[in-house]
Specification:
- By secondary structure, this protein is of the alpha/beta class.
- The chain contains nine helices and 26 strands.
- The strands form seven sheets. The chain has a five-stranded mixed beta sheet with strand order 14-21-20-16-17, with no helix packed on it. Strands 23-22-24-25-26 form a five-stranded parallel beta sheet, with helices on both faces.
- Helix 6 runs parallel beside helix 7.
- The termini are far apart.
Length: 517
């Protein structure tokens, strides 16, 4: 029969793929409590227990009277057997309502206490020492108290406490937990082996070390997790108030060993981390030293905020580029005029700009009043130093030489079409044209919308110099206001005005800078 039950259990395990078989050893007449871990937010009230022993199969259907008769207690996620016997031996399973998770237990009832089934407790010689008795998970209705004895001693009034432990105190201690329920007393035995480590072996205890000195470990639910604790003496793991068993068949167990460098390693191993493991404290203990760690659910990294940030930055860059492209002239003039952000002149040139008038064959050209206005606004309103060869030329000088000198001494040359012939003819003289090309002057062309009747193209000399990117359109009356688009375009292409004006050789200022010499 037992073989058939075992085969059935293996079959169920292979079908579900979720079986976590836990073995519990209990001495005849002792209390044993099976605890079903929760896989959800359930309080355990809808837990179903199933027996594969001589007890009824569906334990959840047992009445209170039937439970008393069978000396068992069903309480939410706990199944308690008050006095174990052969009829209770066998397999049990629990299932939490709303899930397909099933946990299996095997209960083995023994005639006598297994002397090798003990917990180790290490203490340092001549130090205070308190033995810890295991505290199984039982329903809150069961209250308990603890007694200790060693080698038949009637009891220890100090409850396992040694003010100064010695080598003679080492050995096996019996810990008995007595449980009170409905006026009756039940018990459970545990064996604790006290190992007293001499001062000669371990004169100084080092700090207990956990990986990277972390106190919070990130774990994945449903996955395996391991936490290492090291020291130069044997250390133990405690969960809450319970020692962690080294039985590797348990879901949570420990594994201790000595390293080649003389340190003791204690692993806390979770076969599968459950939600119920997260709020608990896990303590690695060495005598009076301990390190307590907790578990935290590993949250997957979300790239959504990063992606949104990148998209936001790109959007801001696109907006910034679009704004700059639309308002680059206003931005440059504001930085230049209000904040003084412009390149300092170090070329030792005397003038900011030279207004070079020529007779246009295509554009109708600027009139005399327009030319006077252009000249005065540049100098008086915006502070530019303008080369005026009528004003700055000495008597008897050749016009071409004066023009070449103005080109040489100016940072920009503004070609202005005029309605009258300034004396250069309808085309720029070849010497002036060559000077503009060879010296790579900063050329700015003023253009008017109105065309000369019958004209088809720019004059050859002007067309060779023409660069559409340096054109500024003069639109008559609308261009005369200093705040107009014309002045913004012209000032944008002109260099910033000099901080101080160059010396001027005095001659009477002509009303029209483009008049004939």
């Amino acid at each position: 029969m037992k073989v058939k039950v075992s085969l059935l259990l293996l079959l169920l395990s292979s079908l579900t793929g979720l079986c976590d078989l836990q073995k519990s050893y209990v001495t005849r007449g002792e209390l044993v409590a099976l605890h079903c871990p929760s896989f959800s937010d359930s309080d355990g009230s809808n837990t179903t227990w199933t027996s594969y022993t001589s007890l009824p199969k569906d334990l959840s259907q047992m009445s209170a009277a039937e439970q008393r008769e069978a000396e068992v207690l069903l309480h939410q996620d706990h199944f308690v057997i008050f006095s174990a016997s052969e009829k209770h031996q066998g397999n049990y399973s629990c299932t939490v309502g709303g899930t397909e998770q099933q946990i299996w237990f095997t209960l083995i009832v023994q005639e006598h206490v297994d002397p090798n089934g003990y917990y180790e407790h290490h203490c340092s010689e001549r130090q205070s020492c308190t033995l810890q008795c295991a505290d199984p998970s039982v329903p809150e209705e069961l209250t308990s108290n603890v007694t200790w004895n060693k080698d038949g001693d009637s009891g220890m009034e100090d409850h396992g406490f040694f003010p100064s432990v010695t080598q003679t105190d080492g050995g096996l201690y019996n810990c008995t937990r007595f449980y009170q329920y409905q006026g009756r007393t039940y018990y459970k035995h545990f064996i604790v082996k006290l190992i007293v480590e001499s001062e000669e072996d371990f004169p100084v205890y080092e700090k207990i070390i956990v990986p990277k000195d972390k106190q919070v470990f990130q774990v994945d639910l449903g996955q395996k997790a391991e936490i290492l604790c090291e020291a130069n003496a044997r250390v133990i793991w405690i969960v809450g108030d319970e020692f962690v068993d080294q039985n590797d068949s348990l879901r949570i167990h420990s594994n201790s060993s000595w390293n080649n460098d003389g340190k003791a390693s204690a692993w806390l191993i979770f076969k599968s981390v459950l939600e119920e493991d997260l709020p608990k404290n896990y303590t690695c203990k060495l005598d009076s030293q301990w390190v307590t760690v907790t578990l935290a659910k590993n949250v997957p990294v979300s790239y959504v905020p990063l992606a949104l940030s990148i998209v936001g930055i790109i959007a801001l860059l696109v907006i910034a580029v679009a704004v700059y492209a639309k308002f680059k002239i206003e931005i440059k003039l504001y930085l230049r005029d209000s904040l003084g952000c412009h390149r300092q002149h170090s070329d030792a040139k005397q003038y900011d700009a030279f207004l070079l008038c020529y007779k246009s064959e295509t554009d109708s050209g600027l009139k005399e009043n327009d030319l006077k206005w252009l000249h005065s606004i540049l100098e008086e309103k915006f502070g530019y130093t303008i080369c005026d060869f009528h004003r700055d030329v000495l008597p008897g000088e050749v016009v071409a030489e004066v023009v070449l000198d103005c080109i040489e001494q100016s940072r920009a040359v503004v070609l202005v079409p005029s309605t009258t012939d300034p004396g250069l003819g309808s085309s720029l003289p070849s010497t002036i044209h060559e000077a503009l090309v060879e010296r790579k002057a900063n050329l700015i062309f003023l253009k008017t919308k109105s065309k000369v009747e019958g004209a088809t193209s720019l004059s050859e000399s002007v067309e060779l110099l023409h660069e559409p990117g340096h054109c500024v359109n003069w639109e008559g009356l609308s261009s005369m206001q200093p705040s107009s688009s014309f002045w913004k375009q012209l000032r944008y292409r002109l260099p910033a005005p000099s901080s101080s004006r160059g010396p001027k050789t005095t001659h009477q200022k002509m009303q029209n800078p483009c008049d004939n010499v």
